[in-house]
Amino acid sequence: MFPVSPNYGSGCPCFPTPCAQAVLGSTSTPVPCPALPACVPPGVLPLSRRPPAWGRAARQPPGLPLALARAFSNNKILVELDESSGVATMKFKSPPVNSLSLDFLTEFCISLEKLENNRACRGVILTSAIPKIFSSGLDITEMCGKSTEHYAEFWRAVQEMWLRVYGCNMVMIAAVNGSSPAGGCLIALSCDYRIMVDNPKFSIGLNETQLGIVAPFWFKDTFVNVVGQRIAERSLQLGALHPAPEALKLGVVDELVPEEKLQERAAAVMAQWLALPDHARQITKSMMRKTVLDRLISHREEDIQHFISFTSKESIQKSLRMYMEMLRKKSG
Ligand SMILES: CCCCC/C=C\C/C=C\CCC/C=C/C(=O)SCCNC(=O)CCNC(=O)[C@H](O)C(C)(C)COP(=O)(O)OP(=O)(O)OC[C@H]1O[C@@H](n2cnc3c(N)ncnc32)[C@H](O)[C@@H]1OP(=O)(O)O
């Protein structure tokens, strides 16, 4: 058996039986596998393993009624796909504050994978169904007083979420309709474009140092890629949460809109991005993000061990407990 291409996977139409192009060095009759486009330049990793789609959402199978919208919801995320535009909306609805628990992260990854595997879907808008909160970031209770096995499982899920969003082939737009600290900010930063509600009461940023913890290198890399080294360095050290107008000034978000215009504006921006041929945009995205993605991919286990040993320290546990206590006192 010849080795298969590293690009080969469940996103390939010939999966699980690799076609001639998927098999490296094969001499069997070539059957073109569109999952392995010859146009991907060497060294540019396709973002997800799904075949590139160029305007495929516009195609409807002849004779079939137009499928307009499909919705599926598990628990914490409501997903709606408009097949006529090829745009899905993932709405976080995990009260009280959309914290990124292990269950939330698992459901998030499964939902995004389902959309990636759906040829009708080309773009995803991430937003919240909870008033005033986009996401409160990682669920701190998952990092407090748990076993090392739990920390490992939780951290792997956080990594998986980031790898999927940052490496996603589809156009990802964050419609930030509330506060978005730390992990919530990371989700928004990992999208292609961020639109935030114009309300100074809503803030966004990587505030880890305020909790006495350190944003991992891939949070930092993602931030630097959006706002540049200087702004990221100052903001990260101070653990700054930027009110929406300041976030716009610093480039943390791309634009502000009144709350009632948010979904309409997200749809309009999405349409602009989807007007481009998918394959050209996807390869460009991959080129821009590959180095940062590869850094985590090649240090994933090490990063989990770092997280475990850092989080297990009594001083860190104490900081997290005090922070939770402060939140509880504040909430009443
Ligand atoms: C060289 C060595 C380097 C090694 C590095 C290796 C590893 C790095 C290690 C760790 C990295 C971890 C990275 C962490 C990322 C994160 O995302 S940490 C989470 C940060 N999040 C926050 O700081 C947000 C905290 N929350 C708030 O500020 C507010 O809750 C709010 C989101 C603005 C909403 O405010 P409000 O509407 O007023 O709601 P309440 O404050 O009343 O909250 C309601 C209840 O929800 C609970 N809660 C809030 N946030 C969280 C959360 N993130 N996790 C869990 N629970 C949360 C809050 O306690 C309330 O609960 P009760 O009703 O009181 O029970």
Automatic annotation (TrEMBL):
<dbReference type="InterPro" id="IPR018376">
    <property type="entry name" value="Enoyl-CoA_hyd/isom_CS"/>
</dbReference>
<keyword id="KW-0007">Acetylation</keyword>
<dbReference type="GO" id="GO:0005759">
    <property type="term" value="C:mitochondrial matrix"/>
</dbReference>
<comment type="subunit">
    <text>Homotrimer.</text>
</comment>
<comment type="similarity">
    <text>Belongs to the enoyl-CoA hydratase/isomerase family.</text>
</comment>
<keyword id="KW-0809">Transit peptide</keyword>
<keyword id="KW-0413">Isomerase</keyword>
<comment type="pathway">
    <text>Lipid metabolism; fatty acid beta-oxidation.</text>
</comment>
<comment type="function">
    <text>Key enzyme of fatty acid beta-oxidation. Able to isomerize both 3-cis (3Z) and 3-trans (3E) double bonds into the 2-trans (2E) form in a range of enoyl-CoA species, with a preference for (3Z)-enoyl-CoAs over (3E)-enoyl-CoAs. The catalytic efficiency of this enzyme is not affected by the fatty acyl chain length.</text>
</comment>
<dbReference type="InterPro" id="IPR029045">
    <property type="entry name" value="ClpP/crotonase-like_dom_sf"/>
</dbReference>
<dbReference type="GO" id="GO:0004165">
    <property type="term" value="F:delta(3)-delta(2)-enoyl-CoA isomerase activity"/>
</dbReference>
<keyword id="KW-0276">Fatty acid metabolism</keyword>
<keyword id="KW-0443">Lipid metabolism</keyword>
<dbReference type="GO" id="GO:0006635">
    <property type="term" value="P:fatty acid beta-oxidation"/>
</dbReference>
<keyword id="KW-0496">Mitochondrion</keyword>
<dbReference type="InterPro" id="IPR001753">
    <property type="entry name" value="Enoyl-CoA_hydra/iso"/>
</dbReference>
<dbReference type="Pfam" id="PF00378">
    <property type="entry name" value="ECH_1"/>
</dbReference>
<protein>
    <recommendedName>
        <fullName>Enoyl-CoA delta isomerase 1, mitochondrial</fullName>
        <ecNumber>5.3.3.8</ecNumber>
    </recommendedName>
</protein>
